[in-house]
Every structure is written in structure tokens, then in C-alpha cells.
Amino acid sequence: MNKTRLLHKLSIVMNKFFYFGYGSNMLAARMHIRNPSARRIGVGKLKDYRLDFHYDGKDNSWNGAPATIVPMKGAQVFGTIWEVDQCHLKSLDEQEGVSYGIYAPINVTVDSLNDKRNIECRVYHLCDQPKTDVHGLNCNEEASFCRLPSTTYLKVIVKGAEETGLPSEYIKWLKQIRHNDNHVHEMESKLELAEVKLAEAISKVSCDRLTFNSVKG
């Protein structure tokens, strides 16, 4: 039995599972709202997927487009590997709106950058996936509301990435993602986002710096 499957089976025996968070659930304060048993394992890298954003009209709690992962050969998404008690599997599904058809869970193999293991993790992607790559939009093109995250949501992602210790180049790239300037003030206060800084305005950032392929890892 290979090491990945052994770790997965051991986690089940111990009544725990591994979860890969790449969006707002990289931030412990956010993750622990509904899943207090979650314990951060470290930084993970998911190969052959890209980070994207899409609003399907079902949930607008973040006042913009939520994150998703989309298969893309050669791309990669960094995030947080969590170990979570099985008793919080239901609450995690509820947070992700699984029963409402917002997100769907899948199992993926994630590279742990802290100890070089391959870990089988639960991860969620939007049921209504975007048909185009948001990062490929022309810098002068006006993206619709359904493709851009809110300022608040992007700040949560950036703070979680910094807290987890994601590669600095990836964090820099996250800060440059286009957002819609909308805020969710209650969450900004609750998650203490006042000190989180995003990149300069999109009109002042070159297109080359916004492409996902510019991020190495």
C-alpha cells in the first residue's frame, strides 16, 4: 500500500479527514467558525488546477464571486491542508452549500510542502464552473459581477495565505487579482481585515503579472 493511501486510511480510522482549503478557509478564524476541530497541517500544492472565481446567483454572502478550482494542465493552486474531525464533515458540507448545489466535494491528491508527503484531501469546487479563465481577461476589459471577488473576500484569502505561509510569489499574485470593490463590513470586522493590503489598482498593473503561469512553485 502506498504512503498516500495509508495516510488516508489512518485518518479514517482515527475519525479524521484531510481537507484542502484554497479560498476563505485558509484563514483559521474563518475555518473555525463552523469547524472548530480543524488543525492546520501546513501548506499544500494542488497540481493541474487553476484558481478561478464565479458567481452562480445562488449565494451572495460575500458580495461577489466565490473561489473555485478548475482543471487546467500545468497550473497549480496553493492552499492550506487541514485535519478535521469526522463529526464536522456535515458542518463543512453545510458551509459549502453542498445540499443547495453550490459546491460539490471531490477527493484530490495534494503535495504537502512541509514534509513532502502526498495527502489525499477533500476539496470543494463550484457546481456551476466558469467557462473561461478569469485571469485571461484583458486588463482593459470590464469583468462582470459574476467573475470578480469582493474586496473583503480577497482580503480573507490573502490573510489566510499569509497565515498559512504560502509561497511569497503566490501571495503577491493573489494580491493582484481583480476585485469588485465591494465590502462585507461585518466579516471585515469579525476577521480583523483592516491591516490586509491588496495590490495597486488594476489599471496600474501589467497584464503579464496577472497571469497564473507567472507563479512558480
TrEMBL record:
An MF annotation (GO) of this entry: gamma-glutamylcyclotransferase activity
Enzyme Commission code(s) on record: 4.3.2.9
Keyword Lyase: yes
EC category name: lyase
UniProt keyword Heme present: no
Domain of life of the organism encoding this protein: Eukaryota
Gene3D superfamilies: Gamma-glutamyl cyclotransferase-like
Signal peptide annotation: none
Chain positions recorded as substrate binding sites: Y19, F20, G21, Y22, G23, S24, Y153
Active-site residues, Swiss-Prot/TrEMBL: E96 (proton acceptor)
InterPro entries: G-Glutamylcylcotransferase, GGCT-like, GGCT-like_sf
Protein keywords: Lyase
PANTHER family membership: GAMMA-GLUTAMYLCYCLOTRANSFERASE
Full protein name: gamma-glutamylcyclotransferase
